[in-house]
Amino acid sequence: MPITTVDRDTEALTMTIVADFAAPLERLWDAYTDPRQIERFWGPPSYPAQFTRHDAAPGGRSVYTMTGPEGEVYHGLWEWQSVQPRHFFEVNDRFAHADGTPNSELPTVRMRFTFEGTDEGSRVTTVSYFHSLDELEKLLEMGMDEGMTEAMGQVDAVLADLSSFAAGRATGTEILSDTKVRISRVIRGPIEDVWRAHTEAGLVRKWMLGPDGWTMPVCEVAINVGQRYRYEWEEAGNGGNRFGFEGELLEAAAPYRMVTTERMIGAPGDGTVNEMTLATVQGGTLMTLVITYPSVELRDMILGTGMADGMEASYRRLEREVLATAVA
């Protein structure tokens, strides 16, 4: 059990949990900032969590659910206040409604997570700040301290499973729900360069090509919120085989988050909403793309096209032809 101490201070209105791990500091930090990893331990074993958003940047948000043994679902969110990579981050942890909006009828807890290296590995100190004694007692009655203790007891297994999250693994696809899919890839390169590679037309043309043998004759990027973009691809030597996508930039917070709409040019029906989040992790930059489809049928049809394989080919080209050059 990694928990070293649990201290409840009714005068300072805080609860402090200290946990020690036999893992490097960078590995522990990544476990908290990678949505694929934190959802494996944030909820107690009988209430597993699922994160559909996890920004890990000042001003960002994390949106998660915990599902109980009888199928009951509880919604929560983090409002990110401050971050110093590999040292600390602070969030407001709130209950939420099903649509991800805050539930103001239930208490909000300010939480500060501090990370440090130790002789044996690393340590995280979690301090929860409450607004009143009544609020503290109410959340303790709801099982907050037991839940966190049970949840953190799962961290060791996540830290030991390095291979599942290491740089160099192929693009991963996870079905989150009937309409949501999460695509993840650790890209070998600094977050600023990965962001530029997604937002500068000259760089996009070099790598966002899918399998070999395709070109990108049209590459109109969207820089500011409200602008539209348009990408078209053509198979080399076959001018008749051409397709493209277009959409609008809905949100942008460089170099961490970008939200766009997307639909195939000329295709009927609704398109998708794509939420891309970048985070600095050991080995490079974690790219997380959550795609929301209008229907399960469209989700399955697109996944069946081999989309992930095409994306993996593009990310390998990004590392080889754009990021390697930038580092050199």
TrEMBL record:
CDD domains: SRPBCC_CalC_Aha1-like. Residues 23-159, 190-320 form the Activator of Hsp90 ATPase homologue 1/2-like C-terminal domain. SUPFAM superfamilies: Bet v1-like (SSF55961). InterPro entries: ASHA1/2-like_C, START-like_dom_sf. Belongs to the AHA1 family. This is SRPBCC domain-containing protein. It comes from Lolliginicoccus lacisalsi. The lineage of its organism: Bacteria, Bacillati, Actinomycetota, Actinomycetes, Mycobacteriales.
